[in-house]
Amino acid sequence: FFMERKTQVKINRKKIMLAKLRKSCSCTPGKMKNIIMDFFPVLQWLPKYRCKEYIWGDVMSGLVIGIILVPQAIAYSLLAGLKPIYSLYTSFFANIIYFLMGTSRHVSVGIFSLISLMVGQVVDRELLLAGFDLNDDAPPSLADGSLWNGSQPNTTAFNLTIGGTSVECGKECYAIGIATALTFVAGIYQVLMGIFRLGFVSMYLSESMLDGFATGASLTILTAQVKYLIGIKIPRSQGHGMLVITWINIFQNISQANLCDVITSAICIVVLVTAKELGDRYKHKLKFPLPTELVVIVVATLVSHYGNLNELYASSVSGAIPTGFIPPKVPCFDLMLRVAVDALPLAVISFAFTVSLSEMCAKKYAYTIRANQEMFAVGFCNIIPSFFHSFATSAALAKTLVKTSTGCQTQVSGVISAMVVLMVLLFLAPLFYSLQKCVLACIIIVSLRGALRKFRDVPARYHVNKMDTLVWVITMSASALVSTEIGLLVGIIFSMLCIIVRTQQPRTALLGQIQNTNFYEDDLEYKNLSSVPKVKIFRFEAPLYYANRNYFLKSLYRLTDLDPNLEAARRKKYEKKEQQQLKKGDQTAANGLGMEETIMQLVPKQIDFQAIVVDCSSISFLDTTGVNTLKEILKDYKELNISVLLACCNPSVIDSLKRGGYFGKDFGNMQELLFYSIHNAVQFARGLN
Questions:
Q1: Per DSSP, which regions of 53-102 are E strands?
Q2: Tens digits of per-residue pLDDT, 672-682?
Q3: Could you tell me which residues come within 8 angstroms of residue 173 by beta carbon, excluding any fewer than 6 positions away?
Q4: Which residue, 660, 678, 680, is CA-closest to 544?
Q5: Which residue, 425, 332, 354, 350, is CA-closest to 89?
Q6: Where are the domains of the chain?
Q7: How far, CA to CA in Å, does 261 sit from each of 98, 219, 243, 375, 439?
Q8: Which spans in 561-677 are helix H?
Q9: Average pLDDT, the chain
Q10: Distance between CA 59 and CA 61 in Å, rounded?
């Protein structure tokens, strides 16, 4: 039977584009209101806020996240190579801005270990290039604004142009200048991606690639914290192979380990891990997570202060953390040019993690998010805070899970968390002066448990999909052993290559008929299938395009045990030999066989079929090479009196075949070449002479 296609109405794309352009350029009060409401989603949901129903959960989750956020912010400053005050600024502004612009009700945006690591690597590189010493124990600046001058001892002075004036800048000033410039550019990239609706870019970051990238970066973070755990002074490694170089330096200087830091680290890790394990085991009985990090920090700070650990045992401490806010500064344009390339992977990773977590929460709690608005929200969470000495932010999985488990209903909880951080900024920050850096390193390392546990999932991952496991291993190895940026690039490229390889060498099969049915399946995969007399049914499980053309032909020739080109050449050879024998008047072939036996050899015994049915159900599209390939096999097999029939083609494939002239002039041969099911094609083939 023949199905008639619907007549497609031609769309005047020019008119549609002009209408959309005219609509987007128009300016009415109603449209302006909609734009503002869309840009600030808080204006839509806050007036509908159910105070009695939501407030308790939001306040509780906000307080818990704020309590967790303070020690993590101070700890992650080690990863970013910056002072703790800047981490607190980052946490404060990110929560406020995402409250105004975010579309997810539950995601926790703020300081994130992976993003802090990427910022820290750029900061360290630029400090070295500027001639600064990366010694972590340089004297801390105070709250009098001295970080914006070169008065710090043992540091190089650097002239930095800020706001059109040249300022002599010390190490800390230059470090935060690099961080804010990097953050500003990353935010600009994210806003531009939102304007041009490039949210689909995150689709190319597969789950396996992101998991591998996070695990590899976690190994790098772990390695960078070991020197704080044991209290040794080693240079901060830069460039490719940082992980290996750092471990070599650690083992070379292991004899210089500070016993006080080692004992403190051992106690803190035992306490933190034990508390985390107990919290995971009894989380269904706990109304909110135990604030273990805060308790450890408070106790460790008191012990360090009253035990004079810094003076007596030379234990490295956090130093002075100023209170209040440093006056805002415009990020330096000259530094933006230096970090423009580094900001691109930072922007992509920050957005990818935020959107994936937002979609996860939205799916779980049955609401929707807008990916492009998330891009704007994260972008402005970077752009605006960069004027207030903050660095790049992203959504964090651990804090998001805590937020949802403690009753969070809306982003009001983010405002509560910001208020907790603000209280620390205004009043409590100086109390952390004596906090040992090894305690912060312990908090960072214990927070990596989730990422490092991915190693346990490798066997299960391998069982599910070997190719995805290979992507995970390659990305993780490149991120850990080379660098995070190279690891991200390698992961994306390798993931795409895997897709290309899968389509270049897909599964191919000959099909047999399921007994007493009209259905056909892979003869090698299923038992009790019947072969169809005089018909070969070939399945190709991928699009047919220029990259897999040769594989398609080789698979077809191998499975049917017939190469039409070789067979045609062999026949021509025998025909030529026969004609030569006839000219000589010898009716007997050179090999002693009679003429009838010679003619029998022209039709090989192995050709036991008269038609090939190509199952096109898995061929999603054809390019020009694909159409020409099908035309080629149609012609080649026709010379051997073998018909080629196509079955189960989708409309786009049929259109490609029509445009390529596969069905002849005016599609006259279409009903003899194209069938809507394999069984229809087989029945037609059986009726052929």
A1: none
A2: 899 989 999 99
A3: 147, 148, 149, 150, 160, 167
A4: 660
A5: 425
A6: 53-132+169-318+343-501, 508-570+607-688
A7: 38, 21, 22, 42, 8
A8: 564-583, 595-601, 624-638, 651-659, 670-673
A9: 85
A10: 6
Residue 631's identity, in one-letter code, is K
| Strand pairing report for 520-522 and 534-540 | unpaired
What angle separates helix 437-447 from helix 51-80, to the nearest 10 degrees? 120
Q: What is the CATH number of domain 508-570+607-688?
A: 3.30.750.24
What percent of the chain stands above pLDDT 70?
90
- Which residues, other chains included, contact 267 with Cβ-Cβ below 8 Å and sequence gap of 6+? none
pTM: 0.79
- Give the H or E element holding residue 176: helix 171-195
Q: Which amino acid is at 224?
A: A
Strand, helix or coil for residue 110: strand
DSSP per-residue letters across 542-571:
S-B-TTTHHHHHHHHHHHHT--HHHHHHHH
Q: What does the DSSP assignment read for 177-202? A: HHHHHHHHHHHHHHHHHHHTT-GGGG
Report H helices in 365-465: 371-386, 397-405, 412-423, 437-447, 449-452, 458-464
pLDDT above 60 for 1 = no
* Distant-in-sequence, close-in-space partners of 115: CB < 8 Å, separation ≥ 6: 346, 349, 350, 392, 393, 394
Amino acid at 101: M
Task: List residues bridging with 612 in a β-sheet.
Answer: 536, 644
List Cα–Cα distances, 531 to 27, 527, 615, in angstroms: 69, 12, 15
**DSSP codes, 12-32:** -HHHHHHHHHHHHH---HHHH
The mean-pLDDT minimum among 286-295, 325-334, 406-415, 671-680 falls in 286-295
CB contact burial 250-270 (16+ within 10 A = b; e otherwise): beeeeeeebebbeebbebbbe
Query: Distance between CA 286 and CA 290 in Å, rounded?
Result: 8
Distance CA 305, CA 290 (A): 24
pLDDT at 94: 94
Dist. CA 213–CA 215, nearest whole Å: 6
Task: Give the Cα separation of 322 and 638 in Å (integer).
Answer: 85
Q: Is the dihedral of CA 405, 71, 242, 125 positive or negative?
A: positive
Check: CB of residue 560 under 8 Å from CB of residue 547.
Answer: no
Q: Please write the tens of the pLDDT for every residue from 74-118.
A: 888 888 889 889 999 999 999 999 999 999 999 999 898 889 989
Encode 670-682 in three state secondary structure: HHHHEECCHHHHH
